[in-house]
Amino acid sequence: MSKSLFRSPRGTRDILAPESTRRHQLVNRFGEIAERSGFGLLESPIFEDVSVFQRIGASTDIVTKELFEFNDKGNPPQRLALRPELTAGVCRAFAQHRPTVPWKVWYHGPQFRYERPQSGRYRQFMQVGAETLGSDDPHADVEMIGLGLSFYEAVGLRRVRLLLNSLGDVESRSAYRYALTRYLQQRSTELTEQSLATLGVNPLRVLDSKRPADQPVISEAPVMTDFLTEESAAHFQEVQDCLDGLDVSYELAPRLVRGLDYYTRTTFEFVTDSLAAAQNAVGGGGRYDGLVESLGGPSTPGIGLALGVDRTLLACEAEGVLAEVSSAVRVFVVDTVGGSQAVGLCDRLRRAGISTDRAFDRRSMKAQMKLADRSEARIAVIVGPDEQSEGVVSVRDLRSHAGQQKIPEADTVKTVKRLLSTLS
Ligand code: ATP
Ligand code: MG
């Protein structure tokens, strides 16, 4: 095989069928579940003014290291970036359009982060997600968590665990930040160099380190939940009570901070034991009560989640619950008399709603029958010289190979429909 000139950029992939079909099915599944709970689809731009994303947090890796940034061709140019996630864009849209609240939206699409590519970690990856803006009712938090769980359940995953934490409000956070900084400074000699650097900018982010060397220090760090104000603690308690009432199991994860700076109060992550620890998060989310305001909108509470489609599929594969992707094609038209009959037959079958394919290039009967088999179609509609002179077509069941019947060409759609409904 000759070597091709170009390859897809590092960290990106071409996704071919049937994997692409599976991904599409997952996205649709999420959409159905979200719409059933009153979320409407939001389509927003793939790139935004870079400042929109800077609101995610000036000290996060996503903003400082992972943005795909560029200037447009304007004079002066505008600084843009490909979206690394969608919550900031949704909040920008909310601030711009001021819809009535609660505003419940769901979305799907590619996100871009300049990360070190590895299994389950790409530079372009697919997320589905949802946001509820304009309510700080703990029930909205529970609805959001339930949406994620229903999705994993619907795709058949059984080894997804829910980790739950509260990051408190601004007041809780500053008390905690102070205590955590002191603790981390006391044990600074045990931290990795990267974590030491993070400590100088944003001590909470040290807790998000996935480096094994940092884990002993992290595992003994003070926990946020000890510093919650009365109000934040009550909010968190109500979320837990409500989850208990629904029999949802969760693990309290008092050191879960997540990769973005905007989270307040409820924070959660869905992890799976079937993937390696470095990529075991299949989804996550939380509250971001200050984000809309920081984007120039009115003070608006919000809660959302984003689920990774690529990792969800990897988890499905690991758990052996990948949905079978059946061939889309049900009928294959084989035409050895020039192909023009195939044009008309395909057109009529397809208009009748029957998925139909055919061969091109006037291939031999044998070659076309091979293609028909490979297409996994159930039925072949065959036009050879005999059929042409008699004004008929032959119809063959490709799976049972139980012979074939000749039918008037005009009856093709009717007969194929009847056959498909009787064949299993
Ligand atoms: P991680 O801690 O694994 O980097 P994250 O906290 O950065 O994940 P979020 O920003 O919360 O992830 O995004 C939600 C989900 O999107 C993640 O749980 C994961 O399933 C998926 N995701 C995030 N980054 C990537 C990536 N680079 N490649 C593939 N999927 C990703
Ligand atoms: Mg990350």
Query: What does the overall shape look like?
Result: elongated
Mean pLDDT: 93
- Please tally the β strands and state the result: 16
Radius of gyration: 28 Å
Q: Strands across the major sheet, in which order?
A: 1-5-6-11-10-9-7-8
Question: Can you identify the CATH class of the largest domain?
Answer: Alpha Beta
Strand content: 15-25%
Which fold name is given in CATH as the topology of the largest domain?
A: BirA Bifunctional Protein, domain 2
User: From the helix content, strand content and strand pairing, which structural class follows?
Assistant: alpha+beta
Largest sheet properties: 8 strands, mixed
Total domain count? 2
- Sequence stretches where pLDDT stays below 50 over 5 or more residues: none
Catalogue the ligands.
Answer: adenosine-5'-triphosphate, magnesium ion
The helix fraction, in percent, is 25-40%
Q: What's the CATH architecture name of the largest domain? A: 2-Layer Sandwich
CATH homologous superfamily descriptor of the largest domain: Bira Bifunctional Protein, Domain 2
- Terminal CA distance: 41 Å
What is the overall number of helices? 16
